[in-house]
Predict the 3D structure of the following.
Amino acid sequence: MTQSPRNSATPGRLRLFGPLTALTGVALLVLAALAVPRSSAEPARAIPAPTLDASPSEATSAVAVLAGGCFWGVQGVFQHVTGVSNAVSGYAGGEGATAHYDKVGMGTTGHAESVKITFDPRQISYGRILQIYFSVAHDPTQLNRQGPDVGTQYRSAIFPADAEQARIAQAYIGQLDAAHAYAAPIVTRIEPDKRFYRAEAYHQDFLVRNPSYPYIVFHDLPKVEALKRLFPDLYRKEPALVAQAGN
């Protein structure tokens, strides 16, 4: 398998966002555009809702942390979900000292590119969050990769906030596998007791801020369109932006 263009030694997904001059940055953007394979996102599919879901609660806010390849696309999808108030790109699975883009990109830190989703459980349940995650946000049958991105940092993983989330996620994976919802088994890992670390500012709201960036065009915007098509009752046009959340 070839190395991901997002973290290769040549200009890739975001090595151009270091301390560069404006002119150099533009030049590298052009090179990065040429480096990105012109392929579409992983195909979305309609899948059944989970039969086991979170218990009713009076809570107005809950959190889900999910990893499914490039965090730009996962963040972009959930920013368009009704009931989601914030979706922050970051890292989970490793230690705080290595929660930095250049280190995570080496694939040796234990981290996965992840998204911390804050949602109102009165509007959308944890189970429905998982349904979107498995259906349109990524392909849960790809082991340590998503599309052109290869490495454990792109693995499919759920970082449950508590035992109930872990139980719901495990039951849903079993349900989907039993129903043969995919041609291959789901490889999503459930990794409890892992801390989430916020990614660098330049990664936040990346899809919204850079809709013409080649990687976004070919790999991530189709996921947002799939959300709109498969979940019209949960899709919202205006995204919940990290910049607007102020945290």
